Amino acid sequence: MAAREVVVLAVALFAGLIVLAPWILQRRAQARRSLCEFRQIQTAEAIIRWENRVGRFPGTREVLPTTDRSIGWTTAILDDLDRSPRGESPWAAAAELVMSDVESNPTTLIITLLCPAAEPPEEGWGPRSHWVINSGMPDALQPATDAPVDWRENGIAHDQSAAHPQSVSLDYLIKHDGSNATLLITENMGAGNWYDHGELLTGFVWRADVKGVDAVRDPLQLLGINEEVGRSDQTSRFMRPASFHLGGVNAVYASGRTQFLHQSIDYVVYTQLMSTHGAEVKQPGGDELIPPPYRH
User: Is 72 exposed, middle or buried (0-12, 13-18, 19+ CB in 10 A)?
Assistant: First the structure.
């Protein structure tokens, strides 16, 4: 082959790669999003199995009756995650370690709890989890004596160690806003480790902010979907869905159905997908009904 032909062939190949590169990158992104969705489905199925057995969804903080030790929703469902046909979970030993040892912070990597679209840090993911559960509105710091820190009408998962603990069952959802219309889990790249407990590191929330007479999200109180991805200042401001997917996040409803939530979703619609009984949403820590359009 003549030198000129080699050059022409090389240029043609290079041009072809330039044309194909965006398509290849797009396909890779789609594959990662699909795998992320599949792992969220596996996690949601484990949560639903736990609900079927216990009669309610797990809370952001569960209290073990024998030791008074607190665990998070993720630890609670590990016996139900990635079950084999024989009903065994590969993560049962990790869960048992957290439940039995107060000082233990396991380093076990649970791949089902991670989104493949995120690049692992230099030290690896370790015990990190990217999934967060619908925990209603931010817990009240100083609730009234006869009120819970948050109401079950506002979301699915609640602190079971708090006074007047709230819980939500699948039957409750079916009777009210519906399991097919209530978000269960989504992703947040700034979430904590799988053994953490409490809504700050394991949940996502909504707020009933208003500006004048309009219902709006206050960005100083709660970031929008995919805003400041990967960051957290350990406040409720970062308790929103956040991923490295272009344009939105994966989410699973309490029925097990999935949806790609676009980051441009109307905020009021988003809050209505989080409440479990929209006609009775109330201010956390009190008994005041939240006004429309949040109450619907």
Answer: buried
Tokens standing for residue 63:
């209290």
Query: In this structure, what DSSP letter does residue 59 have?
Result: P
The answer for residues whose C-beta is within 8 angstroms of residue 41's C-beta and 6 or more apart is 252, 256, 258
Cβ pair 67, 83 in contact under 8 A: no
| Separation CA 187–CA 292 (nearest Å) | 28
pTM: 0.90
Rg value, the chain, Cα: 22
The residue assigned the tokens 């809504």 is 199
The answer, yes or no, to whether residue 132 has pLDDT greater than 70, is yes
Tell me, letter by letter, the H, E, C secondary structure of 3-48. Answer: HHHHHHHHHHHHHHHHHHHHHHHHHHHHHHHHHHHHHHHHHHHHHH
- Alpha carbon of 164 to those of 87, 143, 158, 161, 285: distances in Å? 34, 10, 10, 9, 10
First to last CA, the chain: 74
Kindly report, residue by residue over 269-285, the tens digit of the pLDDT: 999 999 999 999 999 99
Is-contact 187 242, C-beta < 8 A?
yes
In contact, 112 and 130? CB cutoff 8 Å: no
Is the separation of the CB atoms in 229 and 161 below 8 Å?
no
User: pLDDT digit string (tens) for 141-189?
Assistant: 999 999 999 999 999 999 999 999 999 999 999 999 999 999 999 999 9
Task: List the alpha helices (DSSP H) in 55-197.
Answer: 73-77, 92-100, 170-175
Distance in angstroms (rounded) separating the CA atoms of residues 157 and 279: 18
| Two tokens, residue 273 | 């997908």
